[in-house]
Structures are given as C-alpha cells and as structure tokens.
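Lab manual, section 2.4: Encoding a predicted structure.

Procedure: take the sequence of the chain (583 residues), apply the prediction step described in section 2.3, and record the output as structure tokens. A sample record is shown.
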Amino acid sequence: AIDYKNGYKSSSWMSLLNDRLRISRPCLTEDGVLIAAIDDEQQRELSFLLSDCFDGNLLGTICVRANPSGRPTKTGYSVSHEYLLFAGQSSSSGIGRLPPTEQQQARFNQTDELGAFEWRNLRREGSNSDRSARRALYYPIYISGERIRVPEMTWNDSDEEWIVHEEPDAGEQVVWPNNEEGAEKTWRWEWSTVMASLPQLAVRPDRSGRDYIYYKRRPHDEGVVSVSSWFDAKYSATEHGTAVLKSQFGVSPFSYPKSIHAVVDSIYIAGASRRDSWILDYFGGSGTTAQAVIRLNREDGGHRKFLLIEMGRHFDAVMIPRIKKVSYCPEWNDGKPVLTSANDGQATAPRILKYIRLESYEDALNNLQLRRSKAQQTLLDAAQNTEASRLKEQYMLGYMLNVETEGSQSLLNVQAFTDPTAYKLKVKRPGSDETREVNVDLLETFNWLIGLTVQHIAAPQCFSVKFERDSEGRLQLKGRLKQDDEGSFWFRTVTGTTPDGRKTLVIWRKRPGGETPEGVEQDNLVLDEWFTKQGYSSKDSEFGLIYVNGTNNLENLRTPEDQWKVRLIEEDFHRLMFAAEGV
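Recorded output:
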C-alpha cells in the first residue's frame, strides 16, 4: 500500500497499479474475483491493465451513479458516474446474483417442501417473447383439469417448427403460449426442460380467467435477481458514503468515501455470497469494505473476514474508529449509536479486530544508530586527500550499514532479545515530524517470518527461583521453580506448523541474567527446569522443531528417541529479515 494521491498521472499511475495488480493476483482463490473502482478519467487505462494482468479474463463493467450533482468537465458536460471493473482469476470466476430485495422477497409468498416460491406464467412476456424471436419455444401443451402433458414432437429444421405426433385425448385442452389477444408468444422453457420439470408446473387461471401453465420461481433461480450493469441512485457516494461517515463521526472526516451499498453489493456478487469468504482491500481508505463485510455477516449469519491495508493518517483517525463503531452498532446518528429493539442483539455480539503496524522505510532509517570510532574517522578523512579518494565512497556504500549501524533497532539488535517484551522502535506519526517510541511485537513478527500456521499462543508465565551451588561448585536450584506473577523469569510459547509441515514449538523467555557468564548459566538452568516441568522432554513425537531465544542447553535434554531439533530465534530472525530474495 502507499499513501495514495489522486494526482498520480499517466505512466506513474499505471506503473503503481500494475505492480499491485500483479502482486495481488496470487492472493486470489481459483474462483476469486478482483474488483476495481475507478472514475471516468482513467477507466480505459485500468481496463487495459486488468486485461493484461488477468489474461483477458474481464468479467464485466458496472456503471455506478456515484455523484448525482455531477463533476464539471472542460467539454461542458457533468460527470455523475464511476465504474466497477471485475476481473477473474480463472474460468471458474464469475459475477453472481444479488439476494432478493424486500419487495422481491415479498412476492415469494408460497412455500413447499423446497422452500419459498412464487407462481410465474410459463408464457414469456416483454422483449424477445414473440414466436419469431425463438421459434423452438413455440409448441403446444395439453392440460386436463390439473393434469399437464407434453406430447411427443420432432423439430423440423427446414420449416423451423415442431411436428406434433400425438393428438389430444378426449377432455384435454390444447394450450399454446399465446397471449389474451391471440398474439403468438413463446414459452420460457424449451420442450425438454418442460418434460423434465412437470412436478414444478401447475394449471392456474391467468389474468383473463383462462386456465394456463404456471411454474414455481424461487428466490435464487436463474434471472430472478441478476445484476444490472447500472447501479442507480442507491449507490450515490454523496448520500451513502459521505453521509454514512457523518452519521458515525458527527462530521465527515474523509474525502470521497465509497457508497456502502455499492461496496456491499459488489463484494456479494464477486463471491462473498459464500459465507466464509476472505475480502482483501489494499487501499483501505475510510474502512467502507470492513463495514460492508460486517453488514453482510449480520444479514445472513456469515463468517466472512476482511483484511485492509492502509498507510495514511486516516488509519488511526478514521478507519480503526469506524470499524469499532460499526462492530458495536449497525446504526449511528451524529456520532452516537442508535440502539433499537431490532438491532440490540447485533450491537452486543462480540467481535475481534486485530491490526498489525508494519515498520516503514522512514522508520527504518530513523532508527539507525551510527557508531564511528575516532580512528575510523581519521582514516576516512585522510582518504579524501589521496589517490584512494574513492575509499570513503566505497566504504559508505558497501560497509557502513554492516559496521557502523550494527546493533541498530531497525537492523535487528539481537542483544535486545534478552527481554522480547521490551524491543522498541522510534516511529514517526503519519503526517508529522513527531516520533514516538513504541513496542515491537517480536512474537507476532517471528510467526510471520517463518510462515507459522499458529494453533495456540499461550498466556505468559512468570517464575521466581533461588540458586545455590553444590559441593563441587555446580549451579542448582534452591528449592523448586515457583510460579509467581512478580517473578523475573518469564516464558511464553507459540505452537503451530511450519510450511514444510513440521509441528513447531516457539519458546520466548526473558533472560534477566543477560550475557554475563553467571547470568547465562542461571537463565539456562531455569529454562531446562521449566522445559522439563512442562513435559516437553517426554513428548518425543509431538514437535519436530523447537525455537528458543538465547543460547541454551535444550539439546542435552533430548533422548535418543526424540526427533526434535533446536534452533535459535535470533539466527532465523536475522536470516529471514535480511536474506536476499530468491536465495
């Protein structure tokens, strides 16, 4: 993500979007769909990019009435629309149908063993309903009371009509798909479909009182709520984007938010009708996508999850507060929740929001600490006055980050791993030069670095202990390891599976002894005792890999039957953070 600016133009804008499209495609499932919202100025360029990136698999374009009052142009007309472009991962991708509206749902007022339905005349009406449009859909059906029969017929290609091989039985009435005025119309279904669907058909009087053929149409049947290529006033960003934010905050804290209805419906038809979908928005903006997913889950009891990425200052000022607000209550007015009997249960439902703040490029630079001895500086100054004047340039480019900045927090100061809860970085506040010191979540970062699929993160445990030496001077515990909230020895574990399938245990500990020989000895004695007490040394088949911070003696506890191996967190942390891509 970037701090996006509408001022990006032409090649710069296309390069920006092209990079993100190509990175995001592997994130899609086999039937996944990418949705891109764009105004009229660069809709054509974005369409070209999508076609190139998705191998021409463009699924459709929807025109959205985003701004009813319009945006004036140099040519004198007012633009009041935007576009939604849909691209598919594969041939399995597609644009789905919307659920029925309340008005549409009200028509399905009949029920049977398969659920709700409405009766629809089998005769086609409207456009393409005349016999000349679909001649194969023009054929007779025989009825007798409530009994429906389709006679045997053969299609005549030369005359483009059906040859009927059976005469009606006595008492049977011949019904053609003609309307009340006698105009030749067509049936909605072809002959073979009617033959296979007789249980779904019934004889009912039409508007003129004549007996006619009707079929059961259900809420999600073909054509019931298919998506139009035009999203009308309901999708106005002014009325249903800006106004929604204003109701939540009392003012509108964000420019040009999307209409909540446009985002809800586009997410739904792109595949989120499945209730366990993941929705990724890497231009998170004001958080409309998050609110849309929460709304969909409320409406149908789904378990969809959203992942939003943003780096603008509105991340803290708008997005996070908005997600908290809509998680608490679906309706707001002038910055206050509107609690009613209808949404009271929705308001109290618990939800978990997790966000991860990534170190920025500027933060990495701001946390570099240069350490240069007087002797080093003298040599560099002298090199400027000799034929080897390029020495300083070569040193600055090739060695300075490895030598003078070694141990800087942004370059991974492994010495600070003695207390993994206290690793800090100076972080610049978005939109200002002010910096503040924040804690870095080493535990979470390491899980991502090794690609751990986390099964369990344990609560921290603290212990107190006393030491003594035996007659031969060997360090040992004086008494037992005692769990104590005020104890200086701290442990926290993570269990999960690495990408290669190994069951993994990650042990984080505070090492109050530091790097002194006696301190290391004490820390490792406590680690061994804790490890044995937890029963890990006896679970020879549970873990294949064990990580721990700091040098240790855990390998000494392994029996010949044990398969687990011990690796240092610091070594893999550093390797995975700084290894060259592809190595």
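Check your result against the sample. The CA atoms of residues 245 and 311 lie 19 Å apart.
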